[in-house]
Specification:
It is a single chain. With 168 residues, this protein is mainly alpha-helical. It contains 9 helices and no strands. It has helices at residues 4-15, 20-37, 45-58, 71-85, 94-106, 109-115, 118-130, 134-148, 150-167. Helix 1 runs antiparallel to helix 2 (20-37). The longest helix is centred in the first third of the chain and has 18 residues, at 20-37. The mean pLDDT is 88.
Length: 168
């Protein structure tokens, strides 16, 4: 079950007209926080992201799997989306929940912390971006600038200037 803080952030993103992937990002952020807090472990960065995306789909955010996703991932995404559309949600079996929780808890905390470190997340983001075309990245940046709002746009410009200054 997503935390109230996450649900509020998603509602805010939806009101502001942010994309489904941005809204889903709130769930991914929550999942990464859970791993950092030691609530459960993950084997790698992608697993933390996958758990967050699954939660997002179940919460009704229409996040489609990527074109290069495996058939198994596409099937899981369809199941999650179908689950979100069901009106009467019954609780999962206690044994199943306990088993899933135990599996995540037994994952090495040391490996988990490393998997959601700033370095690991940065590497993952760069790897994901490198798979996209330059035109696609550019279009995404333009849309982000449009939906950011004046205060955040100004802050981003100041940060970019600081970064350029550091680089030179």
């Amino acid at each position: 079950m997503p935390e109230a803080k996450t649900r509020r952030a998603v509602e805010r993103d939806k009101r502001e007209g942010k994309s489904a992937s941005t809204q889903a990002g709130e769930f991914v952020r929550e999942e990464i926080e859970h791993v950092r807090e030691g609530k459960h472990g993950v084997q790698n960065t992608q697993q933390a992201i996958a758990i967050g995306l699954s939660k997002a789909r179940r919460a009704g955010i229409d996040v489609e799997p990527g074109d290069t996703a495996s058939p198994a991932i596409k099937k899981k995404a369809r199941k999650d989306i179908a689950k979100s559309r069901k009106t009467a949600t019954k609780r999962p079996a206690a044994k199943r929940s306990a088993g899933a929780r135990k599996a995540l808890k037994t994952a090495s905390k040391k490996v988990a912390k490393k998997a959601v470190s700033h370095t690991a997340l940065s590497k993952q983001a760069k790897k994901a971006a490198s798979k996209r075309t330059a035109a696609d990245r550019s279009a995404a940046a333009r849309k982000a600038a449009r939906t950011k709002g004046p205060a955040k746009r100004s802050a981003a410009a100041k940060k970019a200037a600081r970064t350029r200054k550091k680089a030179s």
